[in-house]
Design goal:
Elements lengths: L4 H23 L10 H13 L4 E2 L6 H16 L10 H17 L1 E11 L2 H4 L5 E4 L3 E18 L5 E19 L10 H9 L3 E3 L6 E3 L4 E3 L6 E3 L6 E9 L5 H24 L3 H35 L6 H11 L1 H4 L4 E16 L3 E15 L5 E15 L16 E2 L6 E2 L22 E2 L3
Parallel strand pairs: 1-2
Antiparallel strand pairs: 2-4, 3-4, 4-5, 5-10, 6-7, 8-9, 11-12, 12-13, 13-16, 14-15
Helix pairs in contact: 1-7, 7-8
Length: 442
């Protein structure tokens, strides 16, 4: 006599749990750090609430990297930009919008970071990732950490709003004009001659004309201290975001696998009386169904990554920064304290000879400040089309067109670009605009 339907369902459920767990445990790589109990992160949050320093237990990160963050974190907390917190024009617009609101309402923006560490890609050199882009030098660093991001009333000390990132990342991207005494170039002498006429400054002590070739110089006449931000690192973007759970895909595979093992097993256990034949048939049938489900889900994931492969020099963090800049005019309203773009998902990619057009879904996270000084968070789903030069490393201008006088989009000065298309006052490199994603206006 065969098993009843009730017994068949119970045995099939046990069968699916056992084999599904074994298969996913050995076939998939799990990140157990993400499975820590909530009590641990409650302890970290309590510790961060009492912290007065920006960083806690930060011995795993070189001091050079920590110092690059501190100037910006200090500016947010004090509500004022200083000479040590030089920022690029696009980022400066956004941070100044927030700082105006903070000063007006007596609010401090405090960021506390605990147990920061460098990702594997940075661990070997323990330094910034550096690259050069036609006359401009860039550097970028990402720290993995638990982060508390809060807004506090300066007078009462009351916390008005806070975001807690148990598995957070903090990204800092900066750029500066390439220093001629650090970077070898075939045209170095020519470039030095070109910039010489723009780097003559007046000594604040004695009034003598002095030529600058770096951040800091000493007046040869009176020994006075002279500083210029022409060669300083300028902050292009600062981001705090929650890392995606690496176990999500595993869970997505685990649940369908258990269902695939469960459903075919019920009729086999119900109608096949021979135990060996029953379990053999059940194993073969469920294995075929389970592998088919895995293949389909993995293909879905590969298709998503395939879209990224169709875009030259694609970087989701860069896309988030450009999207944030493109939304500034519409989102930086009088009641906006802060906004950011998160959870970007590519939906379509279209390439032409010159341009790349993409369709994306994203979440716009906004903090709104009311007249009563209440801060509320608001998330809005976006679906946008954006375009960019297909090969952003190539200048669009040809020949002498690059050397026509233009208005610098960073410092606003009228200048004559050099052979790399760089501003002769602030060092801004025009070619970067070709790599920016811009919203398609329909």
């Amino acid at each position: 006599m065969g098993n009843s339907w009730g017994n068949s369902i119970v045995l099939a459920f046990a069968w699916s749990c056992i084999w599904g767990s074994i298969l996913t445990a050995y076939a998939l790589s799990w990140d157990f750090e993400w499975m820590r109990p909530r009590l641990w992160y409650h302890y970290l949050k309590t510790k961060l609430n009492r912290a007065t320093d920006f960083f806690t237990n930060a011995s795993g990160v070189p001091q050079k990297i920590l110092q690059s963050f501190e100037a910006l974190l200090s500016a947010l907390e004090t509500g004022s930009l200083t000479e040590s917190t030089s920022a690029g024009q696009s980022y400066r617009k956004k941070i100044e919008q927030e700082l105006r609101q903070l000063r007006k309402n007596g609010i401090a923006h405090e960021i506390r970071i605990i147990y920061p560490k460098l990702p594997e890609e940075y661990e070997k050199k323990r330094d910034f990732k550096h690259w050069s882009d036609a006359g401009r030098e860039w550097r970028e660093i990402t720290m993995l950490s638990t982060v508390l991001n809060r807004y506090r009333d300066k007078k009462s000390g009351k916390v008005l709003y806070e975001d807690f990132f148990p598995h957070g990342s903090v990204l800092l991207r900066q750029s500066r004009h390439i220093r001629h005494d650090e970077v070898a170039s075939k045209n170095r002498n020519e470039e030095q001659q070109f910039y010489a006429e723009y780097q003559k400054v007046t000594c604040p002590s004695c009034g003598a004309e002095v030529s600058l070739t770096g951040d800091i110089a000493t007046c040869p006449y009176c020994g006075g201290y002279i500083k210029s931000d022409f060669f300083d690192w300028q902050t292009e973007e600062f981001l705090i975001y929650q890392n995606p759970n690496p176990n999500v895909l595993n869970l997505k595979l685990l649940i369908p696998t258990m269902i695939a093992f469960f459903l075919p097993a019920i009729p086999c256990i119900r109608f096949i009386h021979n135990d060996y034949l029953m379990f053999g048939t059940t194993f073969v049938l469920t294995l075929v169904v389970g592998l088919s489900v895995w293949r389909w889900m993995v293909k879905q994931t590969e298709d998503a990554h395939g879209l990224e492969g169709q875009i030259v020099r694609y970087d989701e963090r860069v896309l988030a920064v450009d999207l944030s800049e493109a939304l500034f005019d519409t989102e930086a309203t009088a009641d906006t304290l802060f906004y950011s773009v998160d959870k970007i998902r590519l939906e379509a990619v279209e390439n032409t000879d010159k341009n790349t057009t993409i369709t994306v879904q994203a979440v716009l996270h906004k903090l709104l400040l009311s007249n009563q000084r209440f801060i509320t968070g608001k998330d809005e789903k976006l679906q946008l089309k954006l375009y960019r030069a297909r090969y952003p490393q190539r200048l669009k201008s040809k020949g002498q067109a690059v050397f026509q006088e233009k208005e610098c989009p960073r410092c606003g000065a009228n200048f004559m670009p050099d052979q790399n298309g760089c501003c002769s006052y602030c060092g801004y490199q025009l070619m970067v605009d070709n790599s920016k994603w811009r919203i398609v206006k329909e």
